[in-house]
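Notebook, student rotation project (T.W.).
Task set for the rotation: take a protein with a known small-molecule partner, predict the structure of the complex, and write up what can be learned from the model alone. Partner molecule chosen: magnesium ion. Sequence and SMILES entered below by T.W., checked by me.
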Amino acid sequence: MGLEIGIVGLPNSGKTTLFNALTQAGAEITAYATVSEKSNVGMAPIADERLDRVARVVGARKITPAAVRVVDVPGTGPALLGNLRQVDAILAVANGFAPDAEPARDLETIELELLVADRDHVERRLERVTKTAKSGDPALRRELEELHRLLAHLDAGGTLRELGGELPGELEPLTTKPLIAVENGPGGIDAKLEAELAELDPEEAAAFREGPSALGAVVTRLFDALGLISFFTAGEKETRSWTLRDGRSALEAAGTIHSDIARGFIRCEVIRWDDLVEAGGHAEAARRGLQRLEGKTYVVQDGDVLNVRFNL
Ligand SMILES: Nc1nc2c(ncn2[C@@H]2O[C@H](COP(=O)(O)OP(=O)(O)O)[C@@H](O)[C@H]2O)c(=O)[nH]1
Ligand SMILES: [Mg+2]
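Predicted structure of the complex:
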């Protein structure tokens, strides 16, 4: 499964605008909070200038950036926030552009909403387990005790994050996920501008900006929060970037590309992206001895270009 992030925020904070900026999906922006909208779901490509440079030296006909799935839920409340139980991280957007904006207070409200949603979730799970635990299953009885303890902890003002690893595995809390706070306005990103620029081609967009895209900084924070790195596959037919958790092996990287490639893994050619670019291509890089052969357990580094040899 690929990575998934959820966007949360109060009405009119710019969630859907940020969603559009990230995904270029062109979802409808409304100036009013509407209650019954459904979630927007899209893929956000992760811009990486290294990818373009690698693609250029290998003469790639197609460039495919890594992408994360983004879910934009149209409001707060336990039911809507419950749609985010599967996501890997939460982007919390706060309005920093309105004249009366108070982004810090809004972020506190969002955190509280997430906590309320988790309390609701624990309570529902407790109701369900209470019914089934009557059968006497010891595992369920233990979970029941655990859930009672959790609820008491929450009601005393505690957070689930404090309990960390002690939480029952069946529970999928929101408040233990990495949370990346994004202020939408002069003090942070300008989601509206970024959404407009997302419709232009990248060179035109870059010419409009004074510096790099503000979305890049959001992605960097996401990578840091989740402990992610990027690696590349550089073919003439297609050159791609991929995301991987830091510390993972070449075998796991191969599995990210395709389960068959992991299954048939023999060896892996590894070269640093900048060595490849400097050498001007695979042949020259190999001639200079910059390419190594690694096995399944090699720990993939950020910026590695991998060529997995496999046999099915
Ligand atoms: N000035 C300004 N307006 C914004 C910005 N981001 C969003 N808006 C506007 O705020 C309104 C609500 O935005 P929307 O993305 O629909 O917010 P949502 O309810 O959180 O999904 C729209 O009219 C947007 O055009 C921004 O960064 N600056
Ligand atoms: Mg919206």
